Amino acid sequence: MPILKAVIPAAGLGTRFLPATKAMPKEMLPVVDKPAIQYVVEEAVSAGLTDVLMITGRNKNALENHFDRNTELEAVLERKGDDRRLREVHQSTHLANIHYVRQRDPMGLGHAVARAQMHVGRHPFAVLLGDDLIDERDDLLKRMIEVFDSKPACIIALQEVDPQQVNLYGIATVEATDEDDVVRVRELVEKPKPADAPSNLAIIGRYILQPDIFDALETTAPGSGGEIQLTDALNTVAHSGAGGGVLGVIFRGRRYDTGDRLDYLKAIVQVASSREDLGPDFRRWLADFARGVEG
């Protein structure tokens, strides 16, 4: 079956960004001039997935408002003749068909994904996490869909990370296939200690999931952090081979992590530096600023 739907979990409390996220969802924190969540929706749409389900929680109304119309703002921009900003406002409104369902209790990523079952049914679907922004010049999700079309299975995105940071990720044990960037996943472990990690291939926030994942999630007990971990359910699928088992696509492109304050600041600098409209002036200023700091 073709992949038609994308699921974006967005129910986290954003405690690492307090007090900024006391009243504003962390997904609405801006990366230059767009909220992080918009980059993720744009990526899904670019890959052909225009039916998007967001898993939200309390105090997430700003997400719905951002992707809805703001007729008063549109009227003001029209009166001013500010066509450029009016187009930008319309863009978020018309990006995709966006639906919302609540995760009432913060019980982990696996629990959030399970909330999508009634929407996606028994069809394969994509999951995109808002903490990981993939540069629009790198077609990770499109590549994952391409792999799925030829080798139906659960597909996870993998990237090599610093061995001392494996405790921040789900880590994979893999074996090679006939494609350089595709591996067969044999074992997954969530946030292992560096000394216990089987590799430094970490799961990053892009997945193609077969509906068999819902069966695995139903029997997945709380794991790391006392939460229901999607990694543990995928490990069950990898062992059973259900729905084709689990394959990994190794990503070697540009990824911007917005998961904590330092990485968020780095992401803003990286995205701004690559922009055609801002990049040249910003890079010059940044070089001068860095020299001043070093001095």
Automatic annotation (TrEMBL):
List keywords of the entry alphabetically.
Nucleotidyltransferase, Transferase
Enzyme Commission code: 2.7.7.9
Q: Does the keyword Transferase apply?
A: yes
Per its UniProt record, what Pfam families does this chain match?
NTP_transferase
Q: Which family does it belong to?
A: Belongs to the UDPGP type 2 family.
UniProt-listed CDD domains: UGPase_prokaryotic
Q: Which domain of life is it from?
A: Bacteria
**Gene Ontology terms describing biological process:** UDP-alpha-D-glucose metabolic process
PANTHER family recorded for this chain? UTP--GLUCOSE-1-PHOSPHATE URIDYLYLTRANSFERASE
Drop me one GO molecular function for this one. UTP:glucose-1-phosphate uridylyltransferase activity
Name this polypeptide is given:
UTP--glucose-1-phosphate uridylyltransferase
Q: Which part of the chain is the Nucleotidyl transferase domain? A: 5-272
The keyword Nucleotide-binding belongs to this UniProt entry's keyword annotation: no
Organism source for this protein?
Answer: Pontimonas salivibrio
Q: Give the reactions, separated by semicolons, that this protein catalyses.
A: alpha-D-glucose 1-phosphate + UTP + H(+) = UDP-alpha-D-glucose + diphosphate
Q: Which NCBIfam families match?
A: galU
Q: What is the lineage of its organism?
A: Bacteria, Bacillati, Actinomycetota, Actinomycetes, Micrococcales
